[in-house]
Amino acid sequence: xxxxxxxxxxxxxxxxxxxxxxxxxxxxxxxxxxxxxxxxxxxxxxxxxxxxxxxxxxxxxxxxxxxxxxxxxxxxxxxxxxxxxxxxxxxxxxxxxxxxxxxxxxxxxxxxxxxxxxxxxxxxxxxxxxxxxxxxxxxxxxxxxxxxxxxxxxxxxxxxxxxxxxxxxxxxxxxxxxxxxxxxxxxxxxxxxxxxxxxxxxxxxxxxxxxxxxxxxxxxxxxxxxxxxxxxxxxxxxxxxxxxxxxxxxxxxxxxxxxxxxxxxxxxxxxxxxxxxxx
Length: 279
Hints:
The protein is α/β, with parallel strands linked by helices and 279 residues long. The protein is built from 5 helices and 19 strands. Its cofactor is Fe(2+). Belongs to the cyclic nucleotide phosphodiesterase class-III family.
C-alpha cells in the first residue's frame, strides 16, 4: 500500500525551489573532527551561506550520512543546526547512518522522513539505497516498486528521484567500489518512465552534473558536495580536495526542466588533513 505523501501548496504554474545538503558526518561531540575538519562548524558555515544567499526555497533535502558516529546526539545536533533556517527538511539515510536511530531522533516540527513529497507539478521520491553493514549501495526491489506505484499514483507530475549512493561511476577508483552496485540497471529501469526528469544524490563528496539519454529524453544526473570534507575528483586512490564545503540549489520548472547550481562556503576556512590515510 502506498503511504501518504507530504504535500506543499504550490501552484502548478510555479517552480519548486529546493536546497540540498548532504554528508555532514556529525558527531555527538561538537568539537570532533573528521580528517582535520570540524564537521559541526563546516555544516554551520554552509547553513550561514545558505541564509546569506536568501534563496526562497520551499524545503530542504538532507541526503544521508547525517551522522559519523551513529550517536543519538549527532541527529539532535543536525536538527538544532538547521532549525534557524525555518525550512521543512526531508531526509533519507546514508551508509554512515543507523536508519532506526535516525528515524527516532531526527524529530521536530519541520523534520520529515516520508518517502514522497508532492509540490507544484512535481513529485520528489526519497529512496533508501543503503545496505546494512556495507559502505556501498543497492536499489532494492521494494524501492523500485515504490517508484512504480508513486508514479502510477501521480502520473501527471514530473518526478525527481533522490538517494544517497551514486548510480553512475564517479571516476575515482577507490570511491567507485562503494557506488550503487546495480546503478546501470536502476537508471535503465527508471528511464522507462517519462515522468522521471532527474536523479539526485550525495555520498561522493564532490560535484557532478551530467545527463542520461533515455527513451523519453534527457534525465539530469546530479551529485552534490559534502558540507564537510571533499574527495578529490578522478583520483585512483583516496585523496582529499581543498575545495570548501558546499550545497546545491535546485529550481524544478513547470516544464520538467531543472535549473541547478552548487555553491560553496567562501574563503579557505576549512583545510582537511591531506595526509590522512583513509576515510
